[in-house]
């Protein structure tokens, strides 16, 4: 593979992974399914959970509670192009999640528009902080677009954080 093509593929894959997290953080979870192949999977080894297929992924993300807000930090995104049409990636994350977050209105997505007339409810629960990593397989479609074929989430640490 030509070095420039490899760099472009790595860049496209990295952007895809960041777009996925951004969609979740901006309260647009329904758009996440479009970043997967038709037969894409999202797996949580703990609890042996797996969602297979774009339609099932769409239903899963559409069921996300409207009052759940997240902000994620991604780091060490390592993409390895293994062939012209396949790549793997590992990325590390810390996600802060709250239900009914009053502070999420700044820079938020459509479900918590700061222009709405009523203020958001106070947090119903303490913030939840999750730390883990993703292992992904990405595939290039015939039109040249990179999509997620498989995502596995590893979550060694997560739970409520005390309000200060």
Automatic annotation (TrEMBL):
Q: Which Pfam families match?
A: SnoaL_4
- UniProt protein name: Nuclear transport factor 2 family protein
Q: Which Gene3D superfamilies match?
A: 3.10.450.50
Q: Which InterPro entries match?
A: NTF2-like_dom_sf (IPR032710), SnoaL-like (IPR037401)
List residues of the SnoaL-like domain: 6-152
Q: Where are the transmembrane segments?
A: none
> Which portions of the sequence form the region Disordered?
103-133
